[in-house]
């Protein structure tokens, strides 16, 4: 008797669940699906000249059963066959997009974001542009970059519409973050792919090398200060004639530096317009070397006529 009641209870529950599902699945629902855009049969001598999104969002309305088929089935995609477009410029609306999608029967399109797509075409061309390094680097205390980063290759080839290429002067890498850096960086970085669905990038990855060293300071003594552009009839006397420099840079880099690695000078024309009798010399240092101080900071000068 108890077993018989148990079967009745189970059957009742199953029937109630079935009834609840049937009622709820008969209601209308709206679902927003992300639809990838695929372009096919584009002639080799033509290219898309108007930026367009990788995906669009389409809102569809249907009952629960139709929505379930949509959500549980394969992801829809929109295939745009360029050969089917009637002109070099074409606008695609919601109905045009839905006609190019495989969606379950009974589902009705409601809206699309963006509301329409505009495609135009131009002659295909190629252009060589430099790579723009996009990195965010934080160094461990006492360490820093020495010299400029080396990017290989330093330029890439872009292929696309002539009108689009005319607006591009460089191409960035994706943003890469390096933290607590205390050793040289040698990494392969991908190029930004924000427009790679209508532009061809070759190659799609570059190598970057950044020399990182522990920082130190060094004093360079007895640098002779050169006076530039002095007329033959004039003579400039600097007091003192030499200065010392305190510089900061990588330990290995500083070890290779000598007095001939720096150029210290004053310009004669600037001295003529100076009424104080003192001037500050200009220092040219190797890349990656930071000037900390000059001793002395200012130099006295005397201009006199040669006899």
Summary tags:
3 domains; RNA Polymerase Alpha Subunit, Chain A, domain 2; 307 residues; 4-stranded mixed β-sheet; 6-stranded mixed β-sheet; 25 strands; elongated
| Whole-number tally of structural domains | 3
What share of the residues does DSSP label as strand, in percent? over 45%
Largest sheet: 6 strands, mixed
Approximate shape: elongated
Low-pLDDT ranges: none
Please give the alpha-carbon distance between the first and last residues: 136 Å
What fold name stands as the CATH topology of the largest domain? RNA Polymerase Alpha Subunit, Chain A, domain 2
* CATH class placement of the largest domain: Mainly Beta
| Total number of beta strands | 25
Short structural summary:
The chain has 307 residues and is α+β, with helices and mostly antiparallel strands. The chain is built from six helices and 25 strands.
List the helices and strands and how they pair.
Elements: H1 2-25, E1 28-40, E2 46-48, E3 55-63, H2 64-72, E4 78-81, E5 89-92, H3 94-99, E6 108-113, E7 117-132, E8 135-139, E9 143-145, E10 150-152, E11 155-161, H4 162-165, E12 171-172, E13 176-181, E14 185-190, E15 200-202, E16 205-210, E17 212-224, E18 226-228, E19 234-239, E20 242-250, H5 251-255, E21 263-267, H6 268-272, E22 278-279, E23 282-284, E24 290-295, E25 299-305
Parallel strand pairs: 1-4, 7-12, 8-13, 18-21
Antiparallel strand pairs: 1-3, 2-7, 3-6, 5-7, 7-11, 9-17, 10-16, 11-15, 14-16, 17-20, 19-25, 20-24, 21-23, 22-25
């Amino acid at each position: 008797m108890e077993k018989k009641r148990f079967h009745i209870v189970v059957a009742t529950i199953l029937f109630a669940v079935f009834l609840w599902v049937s009622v709820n699945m008969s209601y209308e629902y709206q679902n927003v699906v992300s639809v990838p855009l695929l372009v096919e049969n584009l002639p080799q001598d033509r290219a898309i000249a108007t930026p367009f999104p990788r995906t669009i969002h389409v809102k569809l309305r249907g009952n629960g059963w139709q929505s379930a088929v949509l959500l549980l089935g394969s992801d829809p995609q929109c295939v745009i066959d360029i050969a089917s477009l009637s002109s070099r410029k074409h606008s695609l609306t919601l109905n045009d997009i839905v006609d190019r999608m495989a969606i379950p029967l009974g589902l009705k399109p409601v809206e699309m974001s963006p509301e329409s797509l505009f495609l135009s075409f131009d002659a295909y061309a190629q252009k060589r542009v430099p790579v723009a390094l996009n990195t965010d680097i934080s160094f461990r205390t006492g360490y820093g970059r020495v010299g400029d980063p080396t990017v290989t290759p330093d330029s890439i080839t872009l292929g696309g519409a002539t009108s689009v290429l005319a607006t591009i002067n460089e191409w960035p890498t994706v943003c890469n973050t390096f933290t607590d850096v205390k050793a040289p960086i040698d990494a392969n970085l991908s190029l930004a792919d924000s427009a790679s669905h209508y532009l061809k990038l070759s190659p799609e990855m570059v190598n970057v090398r950044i020399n990182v060293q522990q920082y130190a300071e060094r004093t360079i003594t007895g640098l002779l200060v050169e006076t530039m552009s002095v007329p033959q009839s004039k003579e400039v006397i600097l007091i003192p004639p030499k200065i010392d420099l305190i510089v900061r840079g990588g330990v290995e880099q500083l070890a290779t530096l000598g007095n001939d690695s720096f150029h210290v000078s004053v310009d004669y024309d600037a001295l003529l317009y100076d009424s104080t009798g003192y001037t500050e010399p200009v220092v040219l240092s190797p890349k990656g070397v930071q000037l900390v101080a000059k001793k002395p900071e200012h130099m006295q000068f005397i201009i006199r006529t040669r006899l």
